[in-house]
Amino acid sequence: MSVQRWQLLFVVSLLTIGFQATPPQNSAPSPPNGEPTGVTSPANLNLTPIARTWVRWTPWMLALAEHDGSIWIGGEVGLLRVDKTTGVYQRFTGLDGLPLTTIVALAEDPAGQLWAGGDGGLSRMTSDGAWQTETPANSGLYSAWVDGIAITTDGALWLSHGLPDSVVSRRNPDGSWFTYPNRFAVVAEEYANILTTRNRNPLWTVAGSEIWVGYWVFDGTRWAYRLPSSTQTIGLPVGTRPTYSDADSIPRSMDVESNGRVWILESDQHRIASWEGDHWLSHPVSFPFHGSVQLLTVASDDRVWIAFIRDTNPYGNEWAGVAPLGSSLPIVGRSGPVRALLPTADGVWAAGPAWFKMGNDTVVDLRGLPARLWVNGVAVGGDGKAWIHSEVGGSNTYGNLQGLDDRGTSSLLDDRWQYADTDLEVMELTAMAGGPTGDVWVASGTRWRYWFSFNELLRLYNGAWYPSGRPSGNYERLTNIFVQDERHVWFVSNGDGVYRLDDGGTPTSTADDDWTHYELLTVDSNGIVAVDAQGYPWYGDNTGLYRYEGSDWRIVSDNISVCGLVPSTAGPLFVFRHDDHGVCQPSHHDMLYVMADGTIQIGPLRQIFRDHPEWLRTTTRRNQLWAVTADGGLWIRFYSSSQSETLEYFDSRGRSLVYPWPLDSHFIPSLEVDPHGHLWVLVFSQIWRFSPTPDFGLNQLPTAWLLPPDTATQRRVSIEAQGGWAEPISVTVRGLPAELTLAPTPAIVQPGEVFTLTLTSAPSIAPDSYPGFLVATSGILSHTLPFTVTISNQLWEWYFPGIGPDANMQKRTGKN
Prior knowledge:
This protein is mainly beta and 816 residues long. It is built from six helices and 68 strands. It has a five-stranded antiparallel beta sheet with strand order 1-55-54-53-52, with no helix packed on it. The protein starts with a helix and ends in a 5-residue tail after the last strand. The relative contact order is 0.09.
């Protein structure tokens, strides 16, 4: 008997169904540095790759634009969309598909599209809220760094790539590209077009028939140099262009009135001047004590506004202000600097660190960001929050301690920020550490001019902060903290030695606290203390490594510079060392460790992990190279054979995922991991979190269906959320002929719910294989999953005796 093509298709499909494991799940593409680059699976165990995204928290705001009835603020946190009336804002990051981590330029084109430039190329928001990004890899963009956007009335975009001396890319409305060697070339060759520039931008300023590039001015024929400190204008011969060696002096800020009068703020931040057609007119700004102007802009009524910082008294800090030139210069009561000004019909907007000023002069604090300029501490507590300390210096130091609860999701919409009790002073941080029990300890002081006073220690216990005293008679900074267990905590006191606290088993009371002093002859300001698995105290600093035995410190090694001590309850004491450049234990350096018998050994971290993974899993101090998750997993920074760093995750069974490591590694205090497995890192005053990219997947979705004509069958499919995705999901089917229908019920599903797929075949359908696509859409995410329906005349009874019809399969007449 001959076998027909459709019979073979059925056999192949049935074999596929019989031997296929869990159906593959579709996952959304992740932003740069979030996609796992490899999977290592001991004993052939598979670990499903999960796309993850880096998100940053920092107070710096850098750009402003008006678009679609809202104000948009770009900065080191991505993009904020602000309601012009209420000041309520929404944040966009890599979680929303925006690949730019830092945004320094914003502009709206004549078609009403918003463009953003920064460290990831040029991005455009589409009408459905998604982001399309052009980079040197997929377009004619010269560089991925875009720090200025000028737009002409024809819709062309002119992009700078590192002002002042940078190549300029031109993106035409049809998507074609052209590059120019610098701004002078653009203005000279495209003079008529550049005169139609429609937005304020850092590339050039148009004043009537003149185009200003800094102090160089082009009138369509020749260039002239108008430096405010010079009494005469220097002209170049016709056809000659300036070079940047001629233009060392560059204005800090520049704008123009409606009548063509140009205003500049000189680079020294003190002198404002206006061009009066044939000379410069100076406009002095006087501050009561000390101050400087940072930016200027011209409002729609031609009033000049300035952003500044100034002291409120001879001994105070500098505070930011935004006001018209010539006013009394009121402050906004927030720290500067102001990095962006935007005149609108509603007034002048301004953006400062973790705050913005609306057009009606209302100041809004960005409560979802660190409160102060410089972030210098982060520790994850037993309450699941990432506790963040930020401060601003000056004559006095002001600091804030904030708790960020991301509620176990990657979404920023459900974040909860908590400020520590205002009665607890944490002004200038000197040390911060979390322990194995979930407690977080904070040492700090208060600075006023030249005096520094020490605050009580603070302890996070069971989700609440408690004052925890200080060593009696100690007046030195506590610069290092080691939490041995819930009862015993160790401190390094700068210039005073080591202290141990025994809290008597009463964490919320200091009445029975017992302090023990372990005196040292010399104590380095970067000293480290720890206790090993045998109970020996250890101390290390730039002078070497010491162990306390009996009643004295014994030197173990005096030829290493110690920057970290990490004990393991099931292994050695790991000793972190400075390299020749002062970097603490870079991942490519071998690890030094001290065994229980006192012998010192050295080896690569990867080899140590392969031979003794339990050593790392049982360490009791957080550090910058690895972090232990609540379920026994490990995040480890490794130096790969390709001479780059990777971040690898190992679950408790040894299966791993490999991710690129995109952050600067030189000065990382520690890797912190919360109860949900999210990784937190402090890098150069910025908080980063690495967590699953919000997405959804479909479970138990068949990729192959088998049924005869005139039959209906059903399958139940569940929707699984990843990273806290909570938007409803629409399910549709495409590609099937009219004789086949696959209907989802319900057609709109919430994450975590189950829906039913009903496949129905008509009596007239011919035996064959029919491809189709199931499309699941939610917000900016859309997944298309292929499947195949094979129609046969019950061939399983011929080729596979004993395998009968599916229990869910029924003739449309209702008969089996």
